[in-house]
Amino acid sequence: MRSRTLLVGVAVTMLVVIARTTEGQDASGAPSTKTVWSGVYSAAQADRGAGVYTQHCANCHGAGLEGADMSPALAGAGFMANWNDLTLGDLFERIRISMPADRPGSLSRQQMADVIAHMLRANRFPAGATELPIETPALRTLKFVTVQPTGEGR
Amino acid sequence: MTRRLFRSILFSTALVGAVALVVHGVSGQSAAPSTKNGEWPHYTGDARGTRYSPLDQITAANFNRLEVAWRFKTDNLGSRPEFKLEGTPLMIGGTLYATAGTRRSVVALDAKSGELRWVHAFPEGTRGANAPRQLSGRGLSYWSDGRGDARILYVTPGYRLIALNAKTGQPVQGFGKNGIVDLKVGVVFGNEQQIDLETGEIGLHSTPTIVRDVVLIGSSMKEGMTVTTHNNTKGLARAFDVRTGKLLWTFNTIPRPGELGNDTWQNNSWAINGNTGVWSQITADEELGLVYLPVESPTSDYYGGKRPGNNLYGESLVCVDLKTGKRKWHFQLVHHPIWDHDVSSAPILLDVTVDGKPRKLVALPSKQAYLYVFDRVTGEPVWPINEVAVPPGDVPGEWYSPTQPIPSKPAAYGRPGLRIPEELIDFTPEMRAQALENVKHYKWWPGDKYLYSGTLYNPPIVGNVKGLLGAINLGNASGGTNWPGGGADPETGVVYAQANLASFASESVAPPPAGFSDIPYQAGVVGAPFRLREAAGTGTYADVPRRREAAAPAPRPAAAAAEPVQSFSTVDGLSIVKPPYGVLSAIDLKRGDLLFQVPHGDTPDVVRNHAKLKGLTIPKTGQGGSVGLVVTKSLVILGDPQVTTTPERGRGAMLRAYDKTTGKEVGAVLMPAPQSGSPMTYMVDGKQYILVAVSGGNYSGEYISFALPDVREAPTSSSTQQ
């Protein structure tokens, strides 16, 4: 019994070590310097994104981003957990590859970035002075974290 | 069709050539494949729905040492990745067979290494793009005559039954027409009108069930919340000869004139209604020659005004004869269904000594989180199931059943309804107070007149953004146990099932936009934009045209400028329902008692990180969602339905093992994404594997096979060998 506990302890330690080595990096290995708490989109961009969202996304995901039976919510606890610790580049690529589900590839990069701005605002991340970039590598430097890091943003 | 088939064969052949085919273990086997040999020959392990394997190499003592033996990414099976991989593979004779990808391809893999042996794909063009169920499906079926003829059978998104040579992946020429049976032939709507073969609405995502050389096939239609007509395709279950593909019998889930139950469709409404598919897994008792059909809801999910009456066999368990398809008995779980309960789970067949008497049982998990238990020969409930008064409704034109059947035993293993106020959030007094304010926006029934504050079988209302938004329900659409179903230990007579306890639903209907439907009320709220509600994966089939090729999108009925419905289902971003959000339960059929119930899944991030909950000690809450399980000699194994990020192990979801006698969690390993398809287990060359499908969020579909390391680590100074 005691040895089992120790083994579990060893396993947990190893997982923590693995987690640490990837900390601060996204899947591509690029450094993540900013989080979504530091005002990474502008209010004007979110306004534009709301229009795109209404036209192309709301039917499945709901006008209030609340989701429905078969479509995940894009605001709230489930969404935050799904994307926590990933980057806006990951979120952008997911949209680019697969959304809208019945017409993937039908939105421009700008439209998709705008929709992400709308989603960030709906999830109560603060707006800032600059717009989200539209290139994936730049988006990958912006980390999606659900808990506000100490001393960052408002 | 001929051209299409030819293309498919070419595709298959090319891949077989490229993959350096090495087949062993299938040919020449004589013993019937069985979980007893470490195989997994049916979607549910056996044809009885138990998901049980007697393997015992992986135990409580070593589960934490599991590591990834191999993984199989499914992105390139089809023209785009799939983010909802729901399959459970089979393993026979060292080869693993699975469906995967946005074309619902079939792959054969080396069960030890995951190496691809062959792949089959059948492009269906617009017929696939029209399919009501477009994901890669739950899996496939295996059959062998024991003398070298071994076959894999599966149903395409476009509803064709295809038989493949298990060794080569090539279509079996003697089966149907060039290996294919067109399942749309013989499917009807209205008064026996054949559906269109290209556009007619029917499909299936569960697997065929094969027993005694008979292939059993169910049926599935589109999601039924917002549909254009009540006169939809009629559900059915059919049996085919596994050697020839010849139709053996058809069971009409909407009884025709002269058939038992036809009078439960008043005013001849049988002729103008559809659905009642059999979309969950069919199970069978090979020895008794009996088949168990889980039948879903009639058209439409939340409004039944065009079908007055109880509507047999909607939301019924139906037992039919394996040889003839003739009804032996049935039990309707919900009269005149208007809540989308379906019969969501594979019926589980067990032989158990109940109160000292040997019984042949069928046990049925459900969205209601009741386990319905019957004598599977006679259909008699093992413990009384009583007709209980349920709340009345007032939607114009609707027909209501005044009572519904409620099992007296076993007690519910989840939450059939929501007890108000007892089961509202109560982390803090302020949160409880807010929850009590929130429920004022919904219809429920204070007091003891109805069960669960009237939230069980609480009829949908005509909700309005300026008034009551809907009728509270909990154990319906996404509650309790959904399609992953449960499992059981046939040696002890214990049934295991995971259940979602936090599926707060506000059921409301409203008139759809003019011209959308011949049904006067559809899921929706008056004053809110109409939303077409489609099945997961709709539009993702591999042959759905990409942007440049696509015609202009079909106009959608929408009033997109309207405001969204404000939701009162959360309090400070937390579920209005108090934990546990999801549980694993064990029900001992020897006595009909709950053996254990434990929260399943890590406490969600939103609870652990919530500013208003700092300093509070909150026991593990479990998670909402629906996941399937596998039962082994000593364990019950199932993965988390949600991703969490914890300081201890970072981001991911856990595949967990529970001691099956106590419910104690005895081990867990990290998965990169939630469990999206039910796990299975198998053994090859003395090594046990546990395989599970994961996907969701940013993570596309992947099968992961876990096993113990070949080399046991030397003891370190801080640990000792047992």
Task: Describe the protein in words.
The complex is a heterodimer of chains A (154) and B (722). Chain A is mostly helical and 154 residues long. Chain A has 7 helices and 3 strands. Chain A has a 3-stranded mixed beta sheet with strand order 1-3-2. In chain A, helix 2 crosses helix 6 and helix 5 packs across helix 6. The longest helix of chain A has 21 residues. The N and C termini of chain A lie far apart (48 Å). The radius of gyration of chain B is 25 Å and the shape is globular. Chain B has 722 residues and is mainly beta. In chain B, strand 38 and strand 39 form a beta hairpin. The N terminus of chain B is likely disordered. The chains are: A mainly alpha (154), B mainly beta (722). The interface between A and B is large, with 52 and 65 residues.
What would the average pLDDT of chain A be, to the nearest integer?
Answer: 82
Assess the beta-strand content of chain A as a share of residues: under 5%
Choose one word for the global shape of chain A.
globular
What percent of residues of chain B adopt helix (DSSP H or I)?
under 10%
Largest sheet of chain A: 3 strands, mixed
In total, the number of strands of chain A is 3
Largest interface: A-B, 52 and 65 residues
Helix % of chain A is 40-55%
Give a quick account of the main beta sheet of chain B: strands, pairing sense, barrel closure.
5 strands, antiparallel
- Principal-axis shape of chain B: globular
- Beta fraction of chain B: 25-35%
Query: What's the order of the H and E elements of chain A?
Result: HEHHHEHHHE
Q: Helix/strand-derived class of chain A?
A: mainly alpha
How far the N terminus sits from the C terminus of chain A, by CA atoms, comes to 48 Å
Q: Helix count of chain B? A: 4
